[in-house]
Each structure stands twice: as structure tokens, then as C-alpha cells.
Amino acid sequence: MKKIIAVANQKGGVGKTTTAVNLAACLAIADQNVLLVDIDPQGNATTGLGLPKADGDSNNIYVALMEGAITPSMIFDTAVDKLKAIPSTTDLYGAEIELVSFERREYRLAELIEKVSEQFDFVLIDCPPSLGILTLNAFTAADSVLAPIQTEYYALEGLSQLVKTISRVRDAFNPTLEIEGLLFTMVDVRTTLSNQVMDEVKNHFGELVFNTVIPRNIRLSEAPSHGKPVILYDPKSKGADAYIDLAHELIGRNSGLKGKRPDNEGAGEPEQESVTAVPSVENEDGFIQHIDL
Ligand SMILES: Nc1ncnc2c1ncn2[C@@H]1O[C@H](COP(=O)(O)OP(=O)(O)OP(=O)(O)O)[C@@H](O)[C@H]1O
Ligand SMILES: [Mg+2]
Prior knowledge:
There is one protein chain. It is built from 11 helices and 9 strands. It is α/β, with parallel strands linked by helices. It has a single domain, classed as Rossmann fold, CATH 3.40.50. The relative contact order is 0.17. Adenosine-5'-triphosphate (ATP) binds at residues 12-18, 40, 42, 44, 129, 185-186, 214, 216-217, 220-221, 224, 239.
């Protein structure tokens, strides 16, 4: 199994980086070889893994994009054995403009990742909060998009924009791009709004929504300042538990199994179809509309 997943949502601060870092770490702990590629100029995944954001240095994704090659020295070890990462740099802010002059500029990242992806079971790409050329490169390189969603009032609105973009990318650059799944993040199940939004998104997107829900958990927000995924910072926290569950759900979905942790109740339940539901969004008139992905 080799899967390239873009972690994306054009909305800022919804938990993309937290998900990319912690899912990557938990997949690696579940014995998968994982590469995390940080294409966000903010470089939060880079620092969250304790890697330096050495601007002007040559071992980062910006140089790879400009020179058209990932060298072995750009792939860094992390504190988790099977997790490697290619760091970002603030130089990447300039890439939006610099890439314009390249031929096949939307395929730049795809061509890079293709050359190294065989070494890995999962490649996760942490995207910036926009649908610009960097995210477009990630969508062209990826097999699927995992979209973290914060359970707030405008969640569905943002989702319809994301689904439209995925649809356009399928038409123009990457016909096999799928939605890996929608993931609720920073959930407080005690609030009515969280529950309402989750019900609404599930009604529209059905099985595309991950069963695993990421709770609001202070340990998840503390871990990056220690340069560690939560599984190393506080392995017993609710946040660590949730991302372990997500890793197992993802592995399970991709091998056609239920995807529960082996030690959890429910393991061995009947197999569940992987992500096939046709998503729908509400149009401007409030009607539900199926999106042909
Ligand atoms: N489940 C959670 N519980 C508590 N805090 C969280 C959780 N998930 C994320 N956070 C915190 O919320 C903030 C935003 O999260 P994160 O950086 O992962 O979002 P993002 O979508 O990557 O943001 P950006 O769009 O800027 O890249 C961070 O301070 C992070 O530590
Ligand atoms: Mg981020």
C-alpha cells in the first residue's frame, strides 16, 4: 500500500498541521513508513516535529521545488522511528510567484514525490490555508485529500468550496483524486453546536466522515512547543488516543477493513466499504446538490 494524502482545508486554524503531524506519527508507530512533507510557508509541521526552519538553507521543500529534485539530505529523521519529514521554509512564500514561470507548474510536487514515494507506505502533505498554487500542487501529487473540519457554524460553507476545488483539480490535473475523509477536530461534544454541525456534515457526506473524532485537548496544543508529536509528549492523553484511533481507521479503510484498533471493542465487525459515498453540498438556494467527484 502506498498512499499520498494531502491534509487540506483553505480555512485557517482548523487543525491541519496538528492532524498531519500526529496522524503521521501514529501511522509510523503503527509500523508504517511515513513521509511528512511540509508545503506551508508557516512551517508549523516542521517546527512541530522539532526540525529547524533554516531559511536560506538548501535542505527543504522550497529548494526541491525550485531545483526539481529531492536529495537524500532533504529527508530528515524525526524522533519517531519510521517517520521522516521534508521541512518547509519561509522562502516558500515566494514560491507562489516563482512557480508561475515554470512549465507544468501544477505538477512540480507530484513529479518530486513520485521519485521518493516508493520508499513509504504513506506520504502526508501539510497544506497552507489557501487554495493557491502550493495546495494545487499537493492535490495534483495526492491520491486523496483529508480535510480537518472545525465544528463551527460556517464549516459546511468552507467544505463546499473545498469540494469544488477538488472537482476542478480532477478535471484539470489529477482525474483519480479522491476525498480520503472529513475529520472533525477540536470537538467539544458537550456543545450543541458541535453536535449539530457534525450531524449536518454527516447527513451531507455520509461515509466520507471519519468515525474517529478529535476532541479539544490541551496536550495537542502544547506538544508543538516541545517539538514533539503528542504520542511522545503525552502518550496517555485523549489527544494521543484519538490520533491513534485515526491512524488505525485510516489503515483499516485502506485495506478494506473496519479500521478499529485491534484491542478495541468492535474489532472483527463486518467489513465496511471504503470511501465511496457521493458527497453533496448545499447550493446558494439552500438545496442539497450532489457533487460528481
Ligand atoms: N484538538 C485540538 N485541541 C486543542 N487545540 C488544538 C487541537 N487541534 C489544533 N489545536 C490548536 O489549534 C491551533 C490551530 O491548529 P493547527 O495549527 O493544527 O491548524 P491549521 O489548520 O494547520 O492552521 P493553519 O491554517 O494556520 O495552517 C494550534 O494552536 C493548535 O495547537
Ligand atoms: Mg497549518
